[in-house]
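Thread amino acids onto this structure.
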């Protein structure tokens, strides 16, 4: 490596550090609060923040980042979803929307087991979607891809991607509601039988 290469690399690092300090670091507190609302532990928040910073710093250029806060949040969301997918222990609501998690308390073993079951149910519902719809929903809701990236990857228009996401989410909502109603019916019948025994 020549002296010019070293000087160029150092200048790039200084510019990147200044950009990070100006465009990313000011949003850290808000991102930490968002992750805490999503039931991420303090240790995991620290790790996710570190991973996101490393990911951004490793980029060859940040010129393409027009909305730094949104990019930072998308990076964190993608990293969190990747962890969730690996662990398969998720506090999912019926739609599987990470942003809507609300409980700030520690997750009990019962809640963790319920979340695992919920996650498995949602994943099974996604798997039952028609092939193209399933792939679009997986890329958008699980992998966190943008509609534009999905459209380019699958050779579709962004409008078609949007429609497939809407169709998929609606089908999952309906399947979830149906499963919940069936479960409530079963519970009611069981309680009714138990009441007659006593």
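Threaded sequence (198 positions):
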């Amino acid at each position: 490596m020549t002296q010019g290469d070293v000087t160029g690399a150092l200048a790039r690092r200084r510019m990147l550090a200044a950009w990070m300090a100006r465009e990313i670091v000011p949003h850290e507190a808000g991102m930490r609060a968002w992750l805490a609302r999503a039931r991420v532990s303090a240790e995991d928040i620290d790790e996710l923040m570190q991973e996101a910073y490393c990911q951004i710093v490793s980029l060859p250029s940040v010129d393409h980042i027009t909305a730094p806060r949104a990019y930072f949040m998308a990076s964190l969301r993608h990293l969190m979803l990747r962890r969730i997918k690996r662990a398969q222990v998720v506090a999912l609501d019926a739609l599987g929307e990470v942003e809507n998690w609300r409980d700030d308390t520690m997750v009990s073993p019962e809640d963790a087991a319920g979340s695992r079951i919920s996650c498995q149910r949602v994943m099974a519902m996604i798997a039952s979607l028609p092939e193209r719809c399933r792939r679009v929903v997986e890329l958008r809701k699980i992998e966190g891809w943008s509609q534009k990236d999905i459209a380019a990857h699958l050779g579709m228009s962004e409008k078609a991607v949007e429609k497939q996401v809407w169709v998929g989410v609606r089908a999952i909502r309906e399947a979830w509601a149906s499963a919940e109603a069936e479960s409530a019916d079963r519970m009611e019948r069981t309680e009714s039988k138990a009441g007659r025994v006593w």
